[in-house]
Amino acid sequence: MQESVKYGCLVENPETHEVLHYVEKPGTFVSSKINTGIYLCSPDIIHDLNDVWRRQQEENFNGGFGDILARPSESISLEHNVFSEMASAGKLLVYYTTRFWSQIKSPGSTLYANRHYLQLYHETHPDRLAKNGDGLPSIIDDVFIHPTATVHSTAMLGPNVSIGPNATVGAGVRIKESIVLEHATLQDHCCVLYSIVGWNSVVGPWSRVEGTPCDPNPNKPFAKIQSVPLFNMAGKLNPSITILGCNVQVPGEVIILNSVVLPHKDLAGSFKNQIIL
Known about the structure:
By secondary structure, the chain is of the alpha/beta class. It has helices at residues 45-64, 78-88, 107-124, and strands spanning 8-12, 19-24, 138-139, 143-145, 150-151, 156-157, 161-163, 168-169, 174-176, 178-180, 185-186, 191-193, 195-197, 202-203, 208-210, 242-244, 249-250, 255-257, 260-261, 271-272, 275-276. Helices cover 18% and strands 21% of the residues.
C-alpha cells in the first residue's frame, strides 16, 4: 500500500467500474489501485482536452501579468489536469487487473521487465523457451530464441536472454541478461552482458559489450527498480546497462562499457561511461 502513492491512485465503484476519485501521486494513501498508464479513449476526450486548454489560457491571461512569479501552463497532462475532472463528471472507467505489470522508465528497467516476462513464460508457456540438447547452444535458465534467429551450437546464452527475429549469434558467443533485437549480428567469441543490442547492429569478434545491472534489492519489503537519473551530481554518466542503437557497428577486440551508443554509429575503439552521439 505504501508504494501506491508513487503512482496515480484511484477509487473505483466495483459494480460499474466507474472511477469515483483520481489523484496523481497523492501525498497520503488513497487506494491500492494504481494507474498503469494504458488508456483507451473515445474521440470525445478532445472536448475535455479543449476545456482544460481554454481554462489554462484564461488563467495565464488573467493571472500571468499581475504576478511576476506566475508561470504559464503551456502543456496538458492527462493525469494531472484531465482525469480528475473526468472522474468528477462520471466519464472515467477503469479495467482492474491483477496480472503482471512492470514500469519501464529507465534503460535498466527494460532488462528487469524482460527477466520477469521470461519468468512468466517459464510458468505459463515453457514450450516457448529454449532448451538444451545435442547440437544446440548451451542454455542457462530462461532464454527466448525467435524461431528465425540463428544461434551457433557453441554459444552460451542465459540467464534471462531474448533473441529477436533473424538475429545471428556466432560461435563461442556468451550472452547474459541481455536483449538482442531483430537482424542484429554477434560475431564469433564476443561477449554481451547486461546490454541491449539494437536492430541491425553488429558486435565484432572477441569484443565485449557490458553494462552495470540496476537490480532492486530483493531484501526490501517493496523491491522495485529505481529510476536513477542519467547523470550524477558531478555531471558524469551513472553506471547502467549498455545500449547499442540500431545499425551500430562495433569492431572486433574492443570493450564498450556502461555506454549508450546512438543509432548509425561506426565505432573505432573502446568506450567507457559515455554517450556516443
